[in-house]
Specification:
The protein is mostly helical. The protein is 70% helix and 5% strand.
Length: 321
């Protein structure tokens, strides 16, 4: 894949960030109307009454509370993303005294492109993986596993670091974190609705009409949240795969040694599992999905919604440079 240039990629990702920020409130508003419509449809005593006339007041009453909650969630996640990601991955700061080699490779690459050196974290895991994170130059961070530092030679490790620096230069990390925050809202709401529904359905048995209304309300919330999660996840999948190809191309352009990154990816593909990572939203930050080797009954279907392109294709493209 031809690298289109850092400035063009930055412009594209800035546009995508704005589009995501605009689409998300639209999606939330559509779901508020859907919830109001379903609720009024099921509880309306007079089926001849215009549902739309009943629905609009309900939607207007709900909107301030829903958007206020979403805004609060977004602000917390936006400003606390560094701490959340560090906790979810088990990463900790790597000091210069601990590993001068990593700092020298990173600083040389940054100087060659006039970049500010990001923070460097280490994940105490012998598997091979890495990721970049952060919203701005203050908290941009590259995290490397212990295994990737010790098992790759200098050229290969330089290729991996260049790949992560390309994510930062392209502003992929900011775009991806925004999408993770948005998808996380619906994922949380869906999970919470399912948990409450299971608990409530047992408690309200035998309570007659009132208990049935509570269960119905929770079912509607679950359906609406599930729809929101599906469509917000589609937005994320639309941007996730291509960013890896572009970061590979950016690393090849930065190091002028695409074969080194290809060799690194080949080694990473043999053991990418980071045990501390259990959340799929955080897993998509990595250079390779931390649990890509785990197969299940629905692994073929899951491949259709993978956040990473097949690593074999990435290696093949790099070897064509």
């Amino acid at each position: 894949m031809r690298y289109v240039g850092i400035h063009m990629q930055q412009v594209r990702n800035n546009i995508r960030s704005v589009v995501l920020l605009c689409l998300f409130p639209c999606l939330v508003m559509a779901l508020v109307f859907l919830f109001s419509y379903l609720w009024i449809t099921f509880i309306a005593d007079d089926q001849q009454t215009d549902i739309w006339q009943q629905m609009l007041p309900v939607a207007k009453q709900l909107s301030p509370f829903i958007f206020g909650g979403v805004l609060l969630w977004f602000l917390i996640a936006y400003f606390a993303n560094t701490a959340i990601i560090r906790k979810a991955t088990g990463a900790r700061p790597l000091t210069r005294m601990e590993n001068m080699r990593v700092y020298n490779l990173t600083e040389n690459l940054c100087m060659s492109k006039g970049m500010q050196t990001p923070k460097i974290n280490i994940i105490e895991d012998n598997s091979l993986n890495a990721f970049a994170s952060g919203i701005n130059s203050i908290n941009y961070t590259i995290s490397l596993s212990r295994g990737i530092i010790t098992k790759l030679n200098d050229e290969e490790l330089e290729g991996v670091i260049a790949h992560e620096l390309s994510h930062i230069r392209n502003r992929d990390v900011r775009l991806l974190i925004i999408s993770i925050v948005f998808v996380g809202i619906f994922a949380m709401l869906t999970t919470l609705s399912m948990s409450i529904l299971r608990y409530t359905s047992v408690r309200v048995r035998g309570n007659g009409k009132n208990g049935g209304a509570v269960v119905l309300l929770l079912l509607i919330i679950l359906v609406v949240a599930g729809i929101g999660y599906f469509f917000s996840a589609l937005m994320r999948f639309a941007i996730s795969r291509k960013r890896e190809y572009m970061a590979d191309a950016g690393a090849a352009e930065m190091t002028r040694n695409p074969q080194a990154l290809a060799n690194a990816l080949r080694k990473i593909s043999c053991d990418p599992d980071i045990e501390a990572v259990t959340r799929n939203d955080v897993a998509q930050l990595f250079i390779e999905h931390p649990h890509s080797k785990r197969k299940g009954l629905f692994s073929g279907i899951n491949g259709l919604f993978a956040t990473h392109p097949p690593i074999e294709k990435r290696i093949a493209i790099l070897e064509q440079f």
